[in-house]
Amino acid sequence: MNRKSYLLFVLSFISFTMIHTGFLSAQILDGRLGLFEQNADVGNVKIAGSAYYNVEKQEYTLQGSGKNIWFGSDEFQYLYKKIKGDFILTAQVKFVGAGVDPHRKIGWMIRQSQDSASPQVSALLHGDGLTSLQYREKSGADMKENQLLIGSPDVIQLSRKGKIYTMSAAHWGDTFISEEISGDFLSDEVYVGLFICSHNPEVTEKALFNNVRIEIPAAENLVPYRDYLGSNLETMDVETGARKILLQVPYSIQAPNWTQDGKTLIYNSKGLLYNYDLASNAVSVINTKFADNNNNDHVLSFDGKYIGISHHSKKDNGQSVVYYLPVNGGKPKRVTSKSPSYLHGWSPDGKYMVYTGGRNDNYDIYKIAKKGGEEIRLTDAEGLDDGSEYTPDGKYIYFNSSRTGKMQIWRMKPDGSEQEQVTFDDLNNWFPHVSPDGKWIVFLTFNSDVKPDDHPFYKQVYLRMMPVSSGKCTVIAYLYGGQGTINVPSWSPDSKKIAFVSNSGL
Predict the structure, then answer these.
(1) Sheet with 474-481, side-by-side order of all strands
(2) How many domains in the chain?
(3) Do 76 and 25 belong to one domain?
(4) Is the pLDDT of residue 25 over 50?
(5) Burial status of residue 381 (CB atoms within 10 A of its CB: 0-12, 13-18, 19 or more)
(6) pLDDT for 31
(7) 357: number of Cβ within 10 Å
């Protein structure tokens, strides 16, 4: 093969790999701009600005000058792309250095055009901590603003839903505080992006933007469990909050599980289970034989030898049944005789499996021996009990229950005794996962507008963490997801990272 033919072969192979595995994306590959299409100075800026995307850290650095973003025209550095319809813009933001002017500004901006007097909506953080939703309704009109009751937030979000624009902000670890406006002053196609303004034309300021996400939410007519959005397979360092997208695909993947050797993530998609190799980024299917309609309730045994699955069996009228098989693939062995049964945990000694069983129109938590036999009912309260999972020492089973009117985290002894509530708030908390070192619990939180007994796809949700010994719940991820985000134990073996799925209409 000559050099030209070889190069053509290599390029064809790379193209095939990108199309058929989906693990390479513009978001990850573009070393200069990442998610965005262009950067530019808007207005009569004296000192040229710049934008840089760090591929490894998936972090953006903006430098810029500019007189102001106020009155009838603007001057600033803008990193942007064009987009249509509804969207959600989220980022962790931080000024670099003490700065010169207390009114320097960073944040998200939506604009009709690159003209300095363009109509726009901005979610701003000022150098002195002032946080505001600003908007210009007509070209050249004076800016208006709604200030938020929060100072110096670390996380800023700006979303559009129809004619409603919502700014949300939070100190890292807290839930959002929001302010919204409505108006018909921007078209369907707009510019969206990150910006920096020094508020001093003779000075350049600098800012960092982490965990930057542009998400396209589900359309109002999307039919759950028939229509799906694209998915991002992510990992996060729970100490720093740094997130990294590993795999980006235009279809649904759900519920990543970390293998015991720390080398692989197991997730499900389209009824099958897949391995994602963290070193090579290679994706391969796990041979589950006849079990080809698996949902996202798959759990590895503590010794890493087996994987438990919930397969919708044709023999059971399509109801979910618990099976297990070798972690590398093989013929599944049936465990539960009754259905529906949705697996959630193994005992540390590998002898028992715990699951949610639908019996007589009530969903409670049961356990059963790995070898099968009679199931043992552990809960009998009114409302849904779900998400059962053993602690690594085997002393407790954590679960979520709606018995109080909200979905909250609970725990009990392995025999079902001493059931006690762990979280107490007005949100809805699902799927508690205890870290391998036994110190922390990570769980999924829906806002109060979601029914307590529902965990739907495609909502703005939080991932929160709290000490096993109880204490304050801390938000560690602000994302668009829900069902499939973190249904299964998702901790790395060293308890330093978690894996999860976020969603977007890619």
Answers:
(1) 428-434, 440-446, 459-467, 474-481
(2) 3
(3) no
(4) no
(5) middle
(6) 53
(7) 24
